[in-house]
Amino acid sequence: MKLKRNTILTFIALLVIVVLLFFAEKSLNPYYRRILNLCAIYSIFSVTFNLIFGYTGQFSLGHAGFAAIGAYVAALLTLSPAQKAVNFFLKPIISPLANVELPFLLALIVGGLITAILSMLIAWPALRLHGDYLAIATLGFSEIIRSLMVNMQSLTNGALGLKGIPGYTNLFWSWGCLAVCVFIIKRLVDSSYGRAISAVRDDEVAAEALGVNLFKHKMMAFGVSSFFVGVAGGLMANLISTIDPKVFLFTLTYQIVGVTVMGGMGSLTGSVISASLYTIFLEALRPLESQFTIGSLTVPGIPGMRMVIFSVLLLLVILFSRKGLMGNNEFSWDGLFRLFNRLRSKKGDGSTGGDEA
To answer: Of 219, 256, 197, whose CA–CA distance to 119 is shortest?
Structure first.
């Protein structure tokens, strides 16, 4: 009975979300649509980082580099030959890519696959390290990727970057990819494989003694995560329409780590909520970085103030809710009904007490 009820509620919720996305895509101005698209893209970044660190326990800091791979691949595959000729005016693009133009979906998949393959090649030596050493190694690889993109003029157009990328990303693409990402990773972590990677996170020695192949499970988690990071990078490239190596500085990885910690390690729901709040909150604080007036007082803008406030909020979350907004909990209809019944029972107890008084 509960399964049937939950299935019906899930179907209704998905239908409502689709209707809201359709309304937002048709009615909201480009600025608000971009914010909603970025909410979905940052949610994918956070969910995938949660798979690597929250569930597998591998502290990787390579997300910015992997997102850059996906972004450049998707951009190069969706740019028209004419637009490529305009971008690569200093040094011609390599001949195999000069006349290639693929549909957006295929470009995203190819970008995700290439990102996954390259990231697993990086993970092959890096995952033999542990803790801080793994973090430093993956951060170094991320910076190497960015440096290569600066210097590979005939492939990435160097520091000039790529401009005129088709704006294919819309709310259906970004939130649809997020839904697929959450669905696959949720099914993954709820399977026997997910229990194995959780065992790797909790105690590698005990997991190996129980027959868990540590290296295989780490590599698989890394590959799945990197595939969706590459897809998210492709969505970002086709949203902002221009990319260069500076977009993928290591600060992007630090933002993803902060967002994931704020949402709760081991909670996909928390990752989506935290990433959405982070994106909306940063845009709402944008006026603080330019001059504004409060009554008769003129306050000069302070560049970077948004990130300072975000850092303070992150510290407050860590101090007062160390497990983040959701901890390791996930949204469920059963949990929602339990909460509703608990609140209703408390209200009933309060009203009864008042009558007796």
So the answer is: 219
